[in-house]
b(0,+)-type amino acid transporter 1 (Diploptera punctata), 508 residues
Amino acid sequence: MVAQAKSEYGMHNRSVSLAANSTEVEVISEDLQNETQPKMQLKRELGLFSAANFIIGIMIGSGIFVSPAIALERSGSVALCLIIWAVCGTISLLGALAFAELGTVVPRSGAEYAYFQEAYGGLHRFWGPLPSFICSWVYVVVLRPAEVAVIILTFSEYICQPFMPYIGDTPAESLDLSKKIIAVLGLGLLTYINFISVKLYVRVQNTFTSFKLFICLLVIILGIYELCIGNTENLSKGFEGSSASPKMLALAFYSGLWAFDGWSSVTSITEEVKKPEVIMIAVPLVTAVYFMMNLAYMTVLTIPEMIAAPAVAVVFGDRVLGVMSFLIPLGVALSTFGCALSVQFSVTRLCFVAGREGHMMEAFSYIHMQRLTPAPAVVMQGILTFLFIVAGDISSLIDFVSFLIWIFYGGAMVALLIMRKTKKNISRPYKVSTWIPVFVIFIAIFLCLIPIITDPSPRYFLALLFIGVGIAIYIPLVYHRWRPQWMDKFTFYIQVLMEVVPSEQDVD
């Protein structure tokens, strides 16, 4: 249908040109075509405020409301725990600074995938494209869909929490089913938002992030108030009980850095961000918020109370907010929904770029003709996430590949150093000191070895097996470029059903 329309339009232009016998008419016809038909490409809709909200929306998920107890338990003391949170924020900031430079050198969506493609792609015919393919394979097929499923299940949990006193006698099976239904409805809503419009996503995300920051500020203000009235008993313990175990301290850093994960997110959607350097605003802001919220928790709650609490923020709210304590679970629910919305938004752009480069099926690089969103990629992520939600408890599945994140971060730092040699002439509006990517590389190696050394669980070998499956797919479909006939049929049906077309790679 699209090809026929283009053919008729071309015949019309040629007839006008022949009738007028004038090159001026041809130029006018081309100008009219350019004016009336928008470019089939992603648009730069995210300004400074929206891009900052995007990063904050991913970084501040459920972690800061639920998991500070893990770092406290592993560090053993209030003071050491606060230091660990500050250091985790600093490490994340250093990584973010390096990614800001990468975003100016490789102005394409895809984050680590795009950087691997640019740095390693031309080094070797077989090994060069492999890192970027494995990156897209892990992120698109398992890691991000499973992460969205866990986040949206957490959203469902906290939506139900205010009503738990009224449904306490409900059988556990019925309650779990209800939570899954709510999670699926939430998934459907966020998938619809990402499918329908980038502008709608921006409005929803900005609203949710603003409310999320309001809840964070509420916790911080209440903590400051408790400090001002003299509740310093818990903080006065300082380093008392600090852990001397390198293993426990390393795991404390690991849990803290996991809470900060998301600082690289804006570089996954570079083609839709007007100012990628916004990463240098959002990460320090999140670091300050995390530090102050932990300080607030520790002001009100004792160490045993924090460690025993399944959701620290909820216990904190019950202690200081009284009848208004429902604001905390509501805030966590909105926070997790906004986080899931942004994670899905991010990974669909990675899927889009990988499809454009031939590392995913071609149909996933197509965009909607009117909405200019990567509709096939959005729908695929919705389906994968739905399968993970139905599967139930998938946190162990995320453990299979979560430690791989820092492998990709380390690989991105190596890519930065390589491109400083191979792309010396590219303009770099922003450039970090060499020691920063080198330092992040050592941190990445350290964090990737921690779980294997301290807990040599079979799940890490399963993660490596999943990578092996990716290599098995890479050899025939990417390296040898074998294209089964069913792929062409699949692409055709996707075009017809979703009204999508190939995108233009340049951006406005």
Q: What stands out?
A: Residues 151 and 336 are 6 Å apart (CA to CA). The chain is about 70% helix and 0% strand.
